[in-house]
Specification:
Oligomer: single chain
Shape: elongated
Radius of gyration: 30 Å
Largest sheet: 6 strands, antiparallel
Structural class: alpha+beta
């Protein structure tokens, strides 16, 4: 049908533009955060875009329903403003019938959303955690940049020169603050340093050449000094510098199903199963809330409608939180969807229901 092809083309193109814009905004903020971490030396800049790629499916799980809803609102609003809806209604094509023509397209968006929720987002989180656990957390001599003082935990390190493979350093200054009261601070000056790689050891190990080691007691004139030709220095990795764990969100859907007795796992499982149906609710709500007069403009009801649809997502998030605390059961997810769907259908029938209600009130 020509009308269906026309509507599908308009909705898909508009929704994709909105989704791309929302993705750019959200991922741009996240990218700035990771750039800040990389600037501190805790993250290898070469993996930034890999991290963004792995996190993208997770962000799309919330962006896709919202972008689809905004696309529907903009297209239906334009039909009203440009009088196309009046022409279609005069031809016997109601707005509810128009929404039914979009059901196949909605099913397609639903399938994409389900794939994101059930498979792609958990896979991306697992890859992200694996990447950050092996490369992102860096401490000690991993942070060194030529002719800059770098602080990491209780360490302060300076190197006058650094080889491209980061294994050979020159003109080393190293200062370690005492972790316990009464213990001395340690300062080391050396001409050269060579990094040593030891298997199954996350610590930073360097061999220093031709230098001096000082033990300093802050607040006093007491200190000790020793010269060395060769000295091995070992820096333990900073265990506090790590990314947040999302273990349940990274589990596969099959693993969630096997452990669904756990309330936290059950809440995540319900989230993945029922949130994709927000796509269907988006079609119902957009059909009901997009009606405007040509003089009002198609953006008049967009913001209130966005608040209503956003409240649906917030309600589903609240159910997930309550389920994890054993305050609700899995039934809460379909109940929220049913309430919003019923409200949307009621709003869409207001034109036919209003005269009947007025007649009954008059009698």
């Amino acid at each position: 049908m020509i009308i269906r092809r026309y509507l599908v083309k308009q909705v898909v193109s508009t929704s994709l533009v909105v989704i791309a814009l929302l993705t750019l905004i959200m991922m741009g903020g996240r990218l700035i955060k990771y750039f800040g971490v990389a600037a501190q030396g805790r993250l290898d800049a070469s993996i930034l875009f890999s991290i963004i790629g792995y996190r993208l499916p997770e962000f799309l799980t919330l962006i896709l329903p919202l972008g689809f809803f905004i696309g529907l609102m903009l297209v239906f609003g334009r039909l009203y403003v440009d009088h196309e809806m009046a022409v279609l209604n005069g031809s016997g094509m109601s707005r509810n019938r128009l929404s039914r023509l979009l059901i196949p397209m909605t099913v397609g968006f639903l399938a994409v959303q389900a794939a994101l929720m059930l498979w792609m987002a958990p896979w991306g989180i697992r890859q992200f955690e694996q990447l950050t656990s092996t490369q992102a957390v860096r401490t000690g001599f991993d942070l060194v940049r030529p002719k800059e003082f770098i602080s990491s935990g209780q360490y302060t390190i300076y190197a006058g020169d650094l080889s491209e493979d980061r294994k050979n350093l020159k003109d080393i200054f190293f200062y370690q603050r005492a972790t316990k009261e009464g213990k001395p601070d340690v300062m080391i000056l050396a001409k050269e340093a060579t990094r040593v790689e030891i298997e199954n050891d996350n610590a930073n190990v360097v061999d220093l050449t031709a230098g001096r080691r000082y033990e300093i007691y802050p607040g006093t004139a007491k200190y000790s000094q020793a010269e060395f030709e060769n000295y091995r220095l070992r820096l333990e990795s900073d265990k506090e510098a790590k990314f947040e764990s999302t273990e349940v969100e990274a589990l596969t859907t099959t693993e969630l199903w096997k452990n669904r007795q756990d309330p936290v796992v059950a809440s995540e499982l319900g989230w993945r199963i029922f949130v994709p149906f927000a796509i269907v609710i988006a079609l119902i709500l957009a059909t009901a809330l997009s009606e405007v007069s040509p003089r009002q403009g198609r953006y008049l009801k967009l913001f209130p409608a966005l608040l209503i649809f956003a409240s649906l997502i917030v309600a589903l998030m609240a159910v997930k939180t309550r389920m994890s605390k054993q305050e609700m059961g899995m039934w809460a997810y379909p109940l929220v969807l049913f309430v919003y769907g019923a409200a949307g259908m009621l709003f869409s029938r207001k034109q036919s229901l209003a005269p009947k209600i007025r007649k009954k009130l008059a009698k």
